[in-house]
């Protein structure tokens, strides 16, 4: 992932995206809204989704112009806006090492600031990019809401199926990765086949990203995560890695788990084959992602997109195995 983010062509584009994000973040007539968005947007984030928009555009032969940069900024605004909603639903107090908007300003203000970000992204896309890009972004907000809704319907259900978990993360996470690549392809005037291929690549990588995020939630420490470890267990989100570990811990799950009970489940999961089973699953997704890629004539961009899934899997696998062993 670092290779993509640090590549000169992408890093240069991301600086422009950053400036556009900050301009959009300060565009309310209400200073309180601007301050709230500015704080959460300024708290960090890797800008991975905008990087994929830029990489797709470049891979398909288009230098990122004003429209690509704005589309990439809109993608990030939707991502961060959805996180504001997610933190509200999770009653989270910390994200990216900083206090959440719901913790700082209260639920009501956080809710409307999240809404503002989603609406602003849609407005910027339709006024400053194009109708097809605005359509992709409007559709992805629908999918985000549906994916998140599915997660809430499965909470604390120890009979949750792998298929059900995949359906939820396809909507809540993979859809935005898919859209990040698709808008880059649309801005590059790519052929329908190239658009479909890049969209499929984005979706598969998005699934990998969420599954590995879920794995880290069960294996990494609070310091490594920038948020409490084992959050998903406490909140009743029985994620794919946990489901892949099978019956090992099912009987220990439930509502209102004590810290000791969470620790015990984490200990058992780390001693199980969860990490290997999850990495195997992601390796299969990575093969699908690579098979989906269109022909890319630019050697550097081809290398970056080909290398991204396996590099990220290796990075997280190393971390997960280390903490699981320790
Ligand atoms: C973080 O994942 C959350 C998401 C990827 C998406 C959340 C989507 C919503 C709340 C729906 C948004 C609503 C609209 C109207 C678009 P996570 O909770 O697995 O990860 P975390 O540990 O970082 O919280
Ligand atoms: Mg969450």
List the main descriptive attributes of the protein structure presented here.
mainly alpha; Farnesyl Diphosphate Synthase; 326 residues; globular; binds magnesium ion; binds farnesyl diphosphate; two-stranded antiparallel ribbon
Tell me the span between the first and last alpha carbons.
Answer: 25 Å
| Low-pLDDT stretches | none
Structural class of the secondary elements? mainly alpha
- For the record, the CATH class is Mainly Alpha
Number of strands: 2
Listed once per kind, the bound small molecules are: farnesyl diphosphate, magnesium ion
Shape: globular
Corresponding CATH superfamily: Farnesyl Diphosphate Synthase
Question: Percent helix among the residues?
Answer: over 70%
CATH architect. name: Orthogonal Bundle
What does this structure look like?
The chain is mainly α and 326 residues long. The chain has helices spanning 2-6, 8-25, 31-42, 48-59, 66-90, 101-105, 107-128, 131-153, 162-187, 192-219, 222-225, 231-235, 240-244, 259-271, 274-292, 299-325; strands spanning 94-95, 98-99. Helix 4 packs antiparallel against helix 16, helix 9 crosses helix 10 and helix 10 runs parallel beside helix 16 (299-325). The longest helix is centred in the middle third of the chain and has 28 residues, at 192-219. The structure holds farnesyl diphosphate and magnesium ion. The site of farnesyl diphosphate (FPP) has 15 residues, from helix 5, helix 8 and helix 9.
